Every structure is written in C-alpha cells, then in structure tokens.
C-alpha cells in the first residue's frame, strides 16, 4: 500500500493511500484538514490527478457527511462503521510509517 501526504503552503494537509481492491486500483483520501478551506481545497483535485496517473479508477474518501457539500462529484454510497481496537498512538505510528511527502 503506497501512502502519500500532500502538504499545502496555506497550512493544510491531505493524506492518501493507493489500494488494490475488487473494484480495481483505488485512491483513498484518509485525511484532509487545515485552515481557510477555500485556499487549499484544490489539494483534492491534485490527489485525483495523482490517482489517475497511478492508474486508479476511483477515489474513496472517509470523512464527515459535511464534505459532500464542498466536494463536486462525490456521493455517499455506504455507511462506514468503526470500532477502535488499538490506541490512537499506535494508529498514528502505523499511518506515518513509509510515507512519501509532497509539498504543493
């Protein structure tokens, strides 16, 4: 699984990973946060372009429903249920292992 963190000079960060699934190669946006959203929302477009270049057929985003109001072309298809089995510190350590950074 390839992981990439996209950084924006306007104080934002988006993270993505590429996975092979039953639907083909998928880019999953795993996090997206920052200040002044209008200035950095274009990072999602850049991640989509990166996903296309890597041969992905779709992008999945796991986030709050409010993202649907600002992201064009995305729709809610499934409910994601979650149960925490390990500490948040372990999840953070796992996420940041073998990550490639890109400043845009």
Q: Give a short account of the largest sheet.
A: 5 strands, mixed
By CATH, the topology is: Aminopeptidase
Instruction: Give the name of the CATH architecture.
Output: 3-Layer(aba) Sandwich
The CATH class designation is Alpha Beta
Give the SSE order as H and E letters: EEEHHEHE
Which regions are unreliable across 5 or more consecutive residues at pLDDT < 50? none
Distance separating the two termini: 22 Å
Q: Provide mean pLDDT, rounded.
A: 79
CATH superfamily: Gcn5-related N-acetyltransferase (GNAT)
Determine the number of helices (DSSP H or I, runs of at least 4 residues): 3
Task: Say how many strands there are.
Answer: 5
Annotate the secondary structure layout.
Blueprint: E1 2-8, E2 12-21, E3 24-34, H1 37-40, H2 42-53, E4 58-61, H3 88-95, E5 99-103
Parallel strand pairs: 1-5, 3-4
Antiparallel strand pairs: 1-2, 2-3
How would you describe this protein?
The protein is of the alpha/beta class and 104 residues long. It has a single domain (2-103), classed as Aminopeptidase (3-Layer(aba) Sandwich), CATH 3.40.630. It contains 3 helices and 5 strands; from the N terminus they run βββααβαβ. The protein has helices spanning 37-40, 42-53, 88-95, and strands at 2-8, 12-21, 24-34, 58-61, 99-103. A hairpin with a 3-residue loop joins strand 1 and strand 2 (12-21). The radius of gyration is 14 Å and the shape is globular.
